Amino acid sequence: MLATPFRLMLDFALPERCPSCGAMAPAGASAGGAFCRECWDSLVFLGSPCCASCDLPLPYATEHEQNCAECLSNPPRHNGIKAAVAYGDIARHVALRLKYAGRIGLARMIAAQLMRHVRDLPQDALLVPVPLHWTRLWGRSFNQSVLIAREIAAQSNHTLCPDLLRRTRRTLPLGGLSGKERRNMVAGAFEVHAKLASQLKDRHILLVDDVYTSGATTDACIRVLKKGGASAVTILCWTRVLPSGLQSANAT
Ligand SMILES: [Zn+2]
Ligand SMILES: [Zn+2]
Predict the structure, then answer these.
(1) CA distances (Å), 72 to each of 77, 98, 209, 220, 246, in order?
(2) Which domain covers residue 119, as residue numbers?
(3) Same domain, 151 and 221
(4) Fewer CB within 10 Å: C terminus or N terminus of the chain?
(5) Interval between CA 73 and ligand 2 midpoint (Å)
(6) In terms of domains, do 238 and 152 share one?
(7) Residues with C-beta atoms within 5 A of ion ligand 2
(8) pLDDT at res. 195
(9) Which ligand is nearest to the CA of 36?
(10) Are residues 137 and 157 in the same domain?
């Protein structure tokens, strides 16, 4: 395992490669920096028009704030999901490369893509990454959400509080489980670090994760953050799974 300063040096020394497919990318080949043209064109960037509650893409803009059907019938616990791109092959490759290789350059790119959302959020909001259980940290040595949060803090000047949330028990991967099974798996798996609890009171929290899938994990985090006094919790993530049909409609 490489020590962080050495890995950082390597990160800068290696020629720029597309963060998704690994193809050599000429500098400045796209607005994304090192993305090759093909991968860049396949990404679906998320923004307006969108649901005022959950930021789900909406087909058209109106003068007034509008909510999606799901948020109207079932108001979410969070205060917005700000994702850089819709989930798809390219976004998934980037998330996997960050998760298993921990490339600082990827976290920096993700943070840069999130800046257009972060700029509109309160400057006194606190950046809090979704924690990993310590047994997973042991095997991997880094938490991808912490890497992203650290880079957002560097680019936006928001305060980072990486240890505010703690995972109290190890949970199995949520893939393949139903919504209810996912919620049960992560229920009670998080707590606020007792020594840092005072920082939460009336604070807007920016909860950072790499991939937003069903929302079960972030929802379990938000439950304890709001119980601890947080005034609002906005989710910041690299990529977000959209309901089927929405993504392709948005990409055309
Ligand atoms: Zn590529
Ligand atoms: Zn919504």
Answers:
(1) 13, 35, 25, 21, 18
(2) 45-251
(3) yes
(4) C
(5) 10
(6) yes
(7) 51, 53-54, 56, 68, 71
(8) 93
(9) 1
(10) yes
